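Quick check before the chapter quiz. The format below is the same one you will see on the exam, so make sure you can read both the input and the output lines.
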Amino acid sequence: MALQPRRSSAPPTKNSVITESIVSPCLERRRFLGWLLVLSVAPLAPVHAASDIVTRYPWLNGLIEEDAFDRRWLNDLLAPLTLDQRVINLMNSQAEAKPYHLYRPIFINNQRINRGRRRAQTHATLLQSVEKRYQVPNKFVMALWGLESDYGDYHDGFNVLRSLFTLATGYPRRAEFFQRQLRHFLLLAREEGWEPNKIQGSFAGAMGQCQMIPETMRRYAVDFDGDGRRDLYHSVPDVLGSIGNYLHSNGWQHDGLYILRLDADPNLASLQQQWNKQWRSLADWRQSGVTLPLQAQHLNPEEPASLIRLVYKDGPGFHLVFNNFKVITTWNRSNHFAMVAKELADKIQPD
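Here is the expected output.
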């Protein structure tokens, strides 16, 4: 199980100063061989070469100046950390890069579907309360819970602090994003009374049964069970309520459109490339040559939609996607994820 967040005392007061001696290794061989030794062990050394981690990474000054974290406390917390190469490897090999027909079976299977149906029955009253408050169908709340943690049964075992620090300092492509997440994680730990070096989560720093990143958790987690805590590790009401709050806050439309598969048409590939990630009215899409299926002819011509391409076993398929699909992609940017969310939701609770 994921580690129970534990209460801790407040960090030392602001403006404390840390002093730490730097001890150089004793080299008994010749200078040349000694330098080879230093280079050979460098990857295993802690990520800090100086006594003050804030000096090495100046962006940490914002935590001191703007968020009132104590410099010595930050140094004591972060300086011992080492880069976790597993985290970087996983960031570079995520499942979302697979074609859809290989991605889908990871999440859509009888075990996950049947477990979702049973859990939906167990928590039927709670789900009704969540849907009533946030106007989000409970099948989508269940689907996100199922996709993120298999309804609370799966827990990642990465140290969140180390993962975020690894990505903030050793993953240049998204370093700025993870520097922000590290800040929000430390703020969240202070607000919730956690020991930050004891919290477990995913390799990317997502936490709890709904795998929220720190910034998202701070903004959207709710105390749905009313016990005075936002506990996304152990409280199912808080988990489901937080998912509902997130979707509602990001623009979910009750009874809104989600996705429409289009009939095969050789023009769709060029249209999708030309208007990739663009949102246009249905009237504009039709004017560009998209033919809507008969069951969709009644749709509002001003309805915004985007054209996406998914790769199935028998070749590419094209879909128009709408507002609620877009909301799911704010949770996870992958079109693959948004598609399996819809499929799992429909299998847990068919319309």
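If your answer matched, good. DSSP finds 17 helices and six strands in the chain.
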